[in-house]
Every structure is written in structure tokens, then in C-alpha cells.
Amino acid sequence: MKLYSEYYVSNKSERFVNKIWCLDNSIGESLIENKLVLPNGCFNLAIVSGNTIEVHTSKQKYEMNEGIYFCSQMTNKVLVNIQPKTKVTIIQLHAWTISMFPKYDLSNFVDSIIKIDAAELPFQIHIDSDIETLLGKINSYFEELNNSNPNQNTVEKICEIIRMQEEEISVSDISKKIKSSQRLLQIKFKTATGLTIKKYIQILKFRKSVDQMISTNLEKMSLTDIALYNKYFDQSHFIRKFKDVTKASPKTFNPNSYFLSEKR
After folding, report:
1. 3-state secondary structure of 106
2. Global pTM?
């Protein structure tokens, strides 16, 4: 049995959906405990089948029994325990995806999880759907959303500028590119994501650094190199920010304790 697996949506759907990933302990006889997940600037829609998954965010502990859950943006590492006979399928949504549904105000929703009714979703999914069926439903809905919204809204434009920028970028720089006030951009972004623009930039920078750490040989690329490449002031600044999220130093970081993407 493979505990962690990931699946990718169609080219049109990936504008809104980063990937689908599964944590599968459905035939396991023992508790899988103390696994960790890092923030990555995405929302997660989690489908729990079987028994229970326990999730500890920086705010509180959540007991997630069978059902569908909406997981906010996370700003710190999350600890996960998966009961035997339990499977979790997670639809990972880009930061701007919820902005396509302006009735949702997520200004104060961060490091949190809520259980939702399947009827609240704009697309139909079932707890016991296999991955092929789920991918079909997701692609059908988000391909249509892509076709009906060919132009980027403000939140998507902000994220695109940040993601494409090689150098460090400020909110002031972004406002000049979009030709809108900083205050208006901040309000729209926080309403749609729960994060400030600055915090989103920090999360992306942190994840890029982690991915670089685990995909390169640290003997060939020093922490100073990684820090400077990812626009930290220096190695000390990088280590301090790394500890803020993981509660560990880069030197003691153990990738095997984390659920990390297979695709980097």
C-alpha cells in the first residue's frame, strides 16, 4: 500500500486546481502518526472516508471523521495522525480559486478547518468516489469555469505577478503593475485568501527554499546559497524564518517526516 500519492488535472483545470493528493491508510491496521505538512499557499478540500484523521494546526486540534472539509491557508506546519481504515483525498486549490466565488469572505479564516455539506459545493462529489471519477468531475467543472472566465481577476493577477517575479517584489510594486491602490489590493486579497499579500509572498518563498533544500545536495549548495537565491537577507534570516514555520533548523530538518510533493 502506498500511503501518499498524487494526481494531476487537465491543462485547463490546473489554472484553478494544483493537484489532487491522497493519504491512504484504508487497508492499514495501525495508526500513522506525527506526519507533517508544510504551508504552500493553497487551500485544501479534504474528503475523509472510513474512520478519522486528526489534524493539529497552529490554532487547534481537529478530529475529522467521515465527510468533506474545507481547509484554509496554513501559515505553519500541520501535524497529521491517520487512523487505520481511513483514506483522505485532498483537492488542492490555488490561492486565487476562491476569489472566483465572491460571496465567500475568508478575511479571518486561516490555520483553520471546517466541515461542509457536499450540497454546498459547486460540483458534485461523493465520499466513496474513486480517483478517476473524482478527476472527471473536477476537470468537467473547472474546465467550464476556465472557459467562462478567460480573463484573470485582481487576486489571480496578484498571484501571477508574485509567482512570475524573479526578484523580491513589494505590494507597492504590485499596485503599480495592476494600476490599483495598495489598500484596495490588500482588502481584496485578504478577503479571498485570509492572508496578506506579504504573508503569501513569504509562504511561497519558504516553500521554494524547502523544495530546493531537499532536491539538491547541501554539500554542493550551502544554506547561504539557498538563502540568497531565495532573496533572504542572509543565512541567519533564512534559518530564523525556517524555524518560525517548522520549529526546526534547516540542518535538522527531516523530509521523511513530511508529506512533500513527488513533483518538484
Report:
1. coil
2. 0.91
